[in-house]
Amino acid sequence: MPPRQSSRLKKAIADTAASVSTPTNGTSKSKVANLKAELKATEGDIKGDVPSVTEDTKSSKKRKADKIEDEEEDDNEAGPVAEKPKAGKKRKTAKEKTEDLMALAKRTIISTLKRSMYIGAHVSSAGGVHNSINNAVHIGANAFALFLKSQRKWTNPPIAQEAVDGFQSLSKQHKFEVHKHCLPHGSYLVNLAQAEKEKADQAYNSFLDDLKRCESLGIKLYNFHPGNTNGDSRPAAIGRIAAQLNKAHKATSTVITVLENMAGQGNVIGSTFEDLRDIIELVEDKSRVGVCIDTCHAFAAGYDLRSPEAFEETVSKFNNIVGAKYLKAFHINDSKAPFDSHRDLHANIGTGFLGLRAFHNVMNHAAFQDMPMVLETPIDRKGPDGKTVEDKQIWADEIKLLESLIGMDPESDEFKALDKRLQEQGASERDKIQDQVDRKSAKDAKKAAPKKRGRKKAAASDEDSE
Length: 466
Ligand SMILES: [Zn+2]
Ligand SMILES: [Zn+2]
What we know:
By secondary structure, the chain is of the alpha/beta class.
C-alpha cells in the first residue's frame, strides 16, 4: 500500500476530528478511532510483506487483470485494497478511495460479547484470496467465507504465491484465526455424487484442488454442497459422495470437509439430517468431516427455528440424527420463502419468514460459540443511476444486529421494536413468495387429484410461471 493512502487517511482523521462539534459525541469519536485503527493497519501494510496491489508497471497490470478475469466471482467489487486495474477502467475518485478505506463498522472485540460468536459474511476474493481479509475487516466481520477460485469455471490457474503470502500476513495482522473462522465455499459446478466416470473425475479434481488451496492458506474448514442424485438411487449417490471424500481425505492432511444442509427436494442430497448422517457414516476418517447449517435452508427444508421450543427441537434432532460433534459452522440467512417450502431464497436478517426471534435463539445458544457464522444475505441495491450496486453497509449492520441479540431480552421493547421494523421491511417480499408457493401447491394438488379438487380451479386458473 503506497504512502499516499496513509496520508489520505491522516487527512480523513483530521477532517473527521475537525467535524466533531461536541467532544462527547461518541459516534464521531469512534469514527476517529476507526480511522486511526485503519491508518495503523495501512502503515502496517506498508512495512509488511503484502503484495503490492498498486504496482504501476504494465506487466503487473496485465497479470492482475488476468487474475481478476479468472478469480472474479459474482461480486464485482474488488474491495478496499485491490484497485481494479483493468485497462480503460475509470479510476476511482479520491472521495471513493477514502470511502473504501473507511471501515463500515469496527470489528467487535469478541471478549466484549456475552458469548463468543464469530459473525461475518461471504466476502469477495476478486483479485486474489488475500483481498478477502480486507473485505472482511471492512464490514467489521469476525468470520468470513470466500471462493478460493472462480465457482463457475472448471479450469483455474493455480493460486498465486503472492496471494498466499498476502492472505497469511493480512490474517496475522488483523488477528483472524483463519484455521477456525474462515469457511471457504465450494464451487457450484462440483457434484461429488456424479456417476459418469469422466464427470466424476472432473468434479473430484476440482474439489481436491480446493482442499489443497485450503491447506496452503492454513484454512481448516471447507464448506460444500453434498450433491445431486441426477435421478439415480439415493444410497448409490451417497455412496459415491463418501467414496470421493475418502479419497480426498487421503490426498490431503488437515482440512475438514464440511457438508452444507440444503433446502431443495427431489434429487438434491442434504436437505434432511438423515442424508448428512448417511454420508458421514460412510466416511472413514470421521475427524475430517463436518456439517454447516444454513438457517434458511434448514427452515425451508422443514426444520423450524422460530420459537425457542421449535429451535430446541431442531437442535436435538440434529444432535440425535447427525451428532453435535459434527456441527462446525453456520450460514446465517433469513428466508423469503415460508416454512417447509423447499425454496432457497435468502432474506435479510429479521425480514423473512424466520424472523428475528429465530436469530435470537441461534445467537444465544452456548454450544454454537467459536464457530464461523457467515451471512449470505442480499446486499444489492438500486443506485441513483438505476444500476445495481452492492451496499456492504447492509452486512456491517447485520453483523452488529446479530451481535446485539446476544443477551438481549426478547420480551423487551427494544427487541419488539426491532422485530416489528424488520418484519415490515420484508412484508411485500414475503407476500410475493407466499403467493407463489400457494399457487404451486394448488397446482400440485390439482395434478395429484384433478377430478376431486375442482374447487382449486379458481386458484389455479390465474397461475403465473414461476
Ligand atoms: Zn452454499
Ligand atoms: Zn441458499
